[in-house]
Amino acid sequence: MSENVGVTAPQGFTASGVVAGLKSSGDRDVAVVVNNGPEYSAAAVFTSNKVAAAPVQWSRQVITDGRADAVVLNSGGANACTGAQGFQNTHTTAEAAAAALGISPGDVLVCSTGLIGVHLPMNHLIPGVQDAILELSETGGGDAAEAIMTTDTIPKTNEYMSPDGYIIGGMAKGAGMLAPGLATMLVVITTDASLSPTELDRALREACRTSFNRADSDGCMSTNDTVIAMASGASGIEANPEPFTEELRELCQDLAEQLIADAEGADHTIAITTLNAATEAQAEEASRAVARSNLFKTAIFGKDPNWGRVLSAVGTTGAEFDPNLIDVTINDVMVCRAGGIGEDRELVDLGPRDVSVVIDLHAGEHLATILTNDLTHAYVHENSAYSS
What are phi and psi for residue 200, nearest 5 degrees? Predict the structure, then answer.
């Protein structure tokens, strides 16, 4: 793939994805995204997992000044739980990229994804980074998106053209361990709008809050989750922060939906919406509890609209509601009404890929949707043999 999509859709960015030999499959495994300016605003959010990978530790330091000129990403190894040597390998990666690009290592973000507890093969990675920089182009966004895939079956990219004339582009990877604290898996977002680092940071955090933070595939949080945004200002258009935030939210939501749609082994993509909650936080908590219920997820896999498993999950949360008022609707059939039996559950068709679950708490006016997927034999098989 080599198209002007994703991170290279906005002006001022080049990218590439190459085969470095980190993956035994022979697929692309090293990507580089470069901001060519004239502005270099950047922001990022990272996993809240206390066991954070070396590239997360490095990139947290890099982003403190609100500037990043480039991002180096590799699949085929997470470089997590690798000690001082792992951090040094991340530092070496940034230095190699900086030398080839003629920039400061302190302006190079690094991201890794793959198996935890294994050192990266630096004899492959560094030549791969150098090769990727030689192949940088304004049409390399597609190749970069391919290079960051692990168990993903397809690359995830998107572009958004603002009515104001600037473009936002993005790429993402992730098919498992999708249970974020501040971000989910690896995501790089670019824009040719002009924004200050502070404006970009605020927009990114708010966009992530209702998109990536609400994509919850399997309840497992990665050590490497990173979402990066960079603004080149190459369009010459100064973005109004409020509309930009909503546009960024729309792009992030699309990427989050792509992640869940490609979840490991999934047969169903499930949107769980809790509405009429006392607070938005309570609505999110209730929806997430259902999304993380293995009983519920296996029921959907078996095409069983077992609404009792929805109620039992919601009942474990701190959400305020009267159990005698709650309604549950699955694929437009209200199977639970006022905490009791509703329409015949046999009316629910769980054949289609997309499943909608709506939980009405009748306790307020707030809502939140969590995206998840069913738990299948294929998921268990893939993750039982992941490191073998």
Answer: -65, -40
What mean pLDDT is predicted for residues 103-116?
96
Q: How far is Cα 232 from Cα 244, in angstroms, rounded to an integer?
A: 14
The conformational region for residue 362 under phi > 0 = left, psi -120 to 50 = alpha, else beta, is: left
The radius of gyration of the chain's CA atoms, rounded to the nearest angstrom, is 21
Separation CA 8–CA 79 (nearest Å): 27
Whether 14 sits among the annotated catalytic residues: the reply is no
The average pLDDT across 342-369 equals 97
Which secondary-structure segment (H or E) carries 18? strand 13-18
Which residue in the list 184, 274, 372, 376 is annotated as catalytic? Answer: 184
Residues ≥6 apart with Cβ < 8 Å to 69:
34, 35, 40, 101, 103, 104, 107, 108
Q: Which residues contact 32 (CB under 8 A, 6 or more apart)?
A: 15, 16, 70, 71, 72, 73, 97, 129, 132, 133, 136, 144
**pLDDT greater than 60 at residue 181:** no
**Per-residue pLDDT tens for 141-152?**
999 999 999 889
Q: Lowest mean pLDDT: which of 113-127, 269-283, 365-379?
A: 365-379
CA distances 65 to 40, 45, 59, 274, 336, Å, are: 11, 14, 11, 39, 52
Residue of 177, 72, 176 whose CA lies nearest to 125:
72
